[in-house]
Amino acid sequence: MNEAKALAAEFAALVDLLVPGDGEFPSASAVGVQAKLADRLIVLRGEAAVAELSGALKACGGPLAELDEDGRKAALARLEAELPDYFLQVRNIVYLSYYESPAVHQAIRAMGFTYNAIPLPKGYEVGRFDPATDMPRHRRGRFVATAEVERVDLSQLDFLRDAHG
Questions:
Q1: 102-117 as b/e: b if 16+ CB within 10 A
Q2: pLDDT digits (tens, 9 = 90+) for 5-49
Q3: Spatial CB neighbours of 35, under 8 Å, sequence gap ≥ 6
């Protein structure tokens, strides 16, 4: 297998491990998340980003494409443990890219939910606030009307003064 096909298989295995799909939702690789992951990593981390992720996966027990599901899970868990910030960035790119997909929007709508692909400026329909059903019952905190909000004096906090001159 040539290098480009190996990288594509590796990234497909990665994104499908994070978002495997089911009978109603497509897998991440089926909607092309692996390509978006590569593109976004390059934008965020530079031209070496694809090789960087491939190397990190290999160092954690990969290549994923050559492992069974348990092996893939173990390698990804190791990546998360050893490089938590990097894993978080990869995971967030995968999740956000997945939910940008029109096929995923369609699956959400098929469940009976209103789903706007681009919620702004229209937003989502939330209905009116009903104190009888929407008011918190936990008795923690308190409500302050906007007109009653006051600025907090931070001048006594030395660490803020030193940081901002």
A1: eebeebbeeeeeeeee
A2: 999 999 999 999 999 999 899 999 999 999 999 999 999 999 999
A3: 11
